[in-house]
Design a protein that fits this description.
- It contains eleven helices and 18 strands.
- With about 325 residues, it is an alpha+beta fold.
- It folds into three domains: about 130 residues, no CATH class; about 40 residues, no CATH class; about 130 residues, no CATH class.
- The strands form four sheets. Strands 1, 2, 3, 8, 9, 10, 11 and 12 form an eight-stranded mixed sheet that branches. Strands 13-14-15-16-17-18 form a six-stranded antiparallel sheet, covered by helices on one side. Strands 4-7 form a two-stranded antiparallel ribbon.
- Strand 14 and strand 15 form a beta hairpin.
């Protein structure tokens, strides 16, 4: 059964097909002319069987909620005070003629309505090739009693592709399909100078709001001073996340440039992390620590038990 709409709000029209199966896989057949759209999403030109990624948040509101979650503004509630961290620069006069430029990060308050954050669904899509040659983009199996996720995934397909199909005949084969994750781009291994790494990350940093860029660079430079031997940055729906790893110590630091407003200290190894969805990676049970992005971030980072992990690594080292 194929759905061709901009969006649906209820599953009532599909109740008969949903009664027949405990799980459903959603998808679309890739037809001629769709290749460029799939490449723009992050799939390779080969569209190899099992390629899997989280769709970019830039594809539309459903994709944005899928990758980032959703903040529901509570306009019926009194406004609250929130804070944004900015780099404050000023000039100090030392004597009559000498001037010294100073700077520090401060939290600037502003008023806003409260938000309720709805976590991201993090639905990833995969390439599935039938033995007969037809190629599909598919979801994971979804239990039919999970109506919220089912409705969300249908609307995700409709937003990206303009259509969605219920796939049941190949359910078993799709479940057994191999997985090739495309959510991360891994930089060449080894310790590298800060300026070299910054050059690679500049396109990501500069896509952030201008007022946040100084603080982003400051955080990354401080983490980099610990001399990570592994760096990867997110693509597609993981865009804006950078992982700096210390393989010998089994510690990976996930820096969120735009979303979540925190630095995550993870104790899992890369082989495990690379297979996880964004929701699984950000799950509190996986975190050694979570450092909120505010004016005391640096202080907390230096006080954190990282010294035990890195056996005396100097946090003030310059490179």
């Amino acid at each position: 059964m194929i759905i061709k709409k901009k969006r649906i709000r209820k599953l009532t029209a599909f109740k008969e097909i949903l009664k027949q199966h405990p799980e459903i896989i959603l998808g679309i057949q890739i037809r001629e002319g769709s290749e460029q759209k799939l490449k723009n999403m992050g799939f390779t030109e080969k569209l190899a069987n099992g390629e899997t990624l989280l769709p970019s948040s830039s594809l539309g509101p459903v994709s944005r909620a899928n990758a980032l979650g959703l903040d529901i503004i509570q306009k019926n509630e009194p406004k609250e005070t929130a804070y944004r961290t900015v780099n404050w620069k000023w000039i100090e006069w030392h004597g009559r003629y000498d001037r010294v430029e100073k700077e520090k990060f401060i939290d600037v308050p502003y008023s806003r309505y409260p938000r309720i954050h709805v976590p991201a669904k993090s639905m990833e899509l995969s390439v599935f090739r039938k033995p007969t040659g037809e190629c599909y983009v598919v979801s994971i199996p979804i239990k039919v009693n999970n109506s919220e996720l089912l409705l969300h995934t249908i609307n995700l397909f409709l937003e990206i592709f303009g259509e969605c199909e219920f796939l049941t005949a190949d359910l078993e084969n799709i479940v057994k399909n191999p997985t090739i994750k495309l959510n991360w781009q891994i930089l060449p291994p080894g310790i590298r100078p800060w300026q070299e790494l910054k050059k690679e990350l500049d396109p990501i940093i500069k896509s952030a709001p201008e007022g946040k860029q100084d603080f982003i660079v400051h955080r990354l430079k401080l983490i980099h001073s610990l001399q990570p031997d592994f760096t990867a940055f997110g693509t597609a729906g993981f865009y804006g996340y950078i992982i700096l790893g210390f393989k010998q110590n089994g510690v990976y630091i996930l820096e969120s440039l735009f979303y979540g407003n925190a630095t995550y200290i993870l104790g899992k190894n890369w082989a495990e992390l690379s297979k996880m969805t964004k929701a699984e990676i950000l799950n509190a049970s996986l975190q050694e620590d979570r450092l909120i992005h505010n004016r005391i971030w640096e202080e907390k980072f230096k006080l954190w038990k990282v010294k035990a992990f890195f056996k005396g690594a100097r946090l003030d080292q310059k490179n």
